[in-house]
């Protein structure tokens, strides 16, 4: 006898073996020896606090609310007990219960963030060797496709209207005017503006250091006029600490996101089209980058935006990456002011 079975097991035999193994509390992984040295899978309540400490500021802000939902509803469950169908059902629940804001998109963004948050959580679990990748239920759940974006570049006349209303209304028109100028000139994100410090300003070269996605710093040219006003803002409202936050309210307290909400809510009251189209600060980024791309090409627009050349346009993009001088030249053309770093041509 060779011990080799030439007759493959039938479906009935496989099912019978499965039932017996389940009754004994044995899994296929147990038989293969894959789980002999693997610690028990933790519950969501045990693992979420452990992982959350490794998140960056942006990741914590994006995923935090959804992980709180998971911890609230599934906190006492082991992470290998939740099925893909349960995650799908919870995804739809999150979509239906998403806060209906002025810029709502039917809850699709909330549902996508929920799936991304779970995938991030389970990725840590796999990396910690507490679960095999093929058992990751979050990877089996589809992330909702995002609806087409509604943002686009604003016309010059529209941008002028926004600036006019911002500096003639409200309780701090000087701050609002400075914010709009900063975002229009640099196409920076809100986080980049709010993180700006006096020590990030280089008056000689008219450069500022922006810290945005991934806590990465990048140099961005600004006009001499904007630099002058940023320095004056620090002189009159700063606390004297060059490493402290630069943008501040009239009482000296650092700027918060509430100022942006207040600004665009006020602009929407005076300009019906701002409210109807749900204009926000990010539209200024679209406006500036669209103008730069149309007049100076894709490479300069990409550098102006602070986007990496990796994965964008293939290997060629690495060789044609725009220089800081070219970005400064685009800014100079846009503002009509000379810049010390601007290159000719």
UniProtKB/TrEMBL annotation:
<dbReference type="GO" id="GO:0015074">
    <property type="term" value="P:DNA integration"/>
</dbReference>
<dbReference type="InterPro" id="IPR013762">
    <property type="entry name" value="Integrase-like_cat_sf"/>
</dbReference>
<keyword id="KW-0233">DNA recombination</keyword>
<dbReference type="InterPro" id="IPR011010">
    <property type="entry name" value="DNA_brk_join_enz"/>
</dbReference>
<dbReference type="GO" id="GO:0003677">
    <property type="term" value="F:DNA binding"/>
</dbReference>
<dbReference type="GO" id="GO:0006310">
    <property type="term" value="P:DNA recombination"/>
</dbReference>
<dbReference type="InterPro" id="IPR010998">
    <property type="entry name" value="Integrase_recombinase_N"/>
</dbReference>
<dbReference type="InterPro" id="IPR050090">
    <property type="entry name" value="Tyrosine_recombinase_XerCD"/>
</dbReference>
<comment type="similarity">
    <text>Belongs to the 'phage' integrase family.</text>
</comment>
<keyword id="KW-0238">DNA-binding</keyword>
<protein>
    <submittedName>
        <fullName>Site-specific recombinase XerD</fullName>
    </submittedName>
</protein>
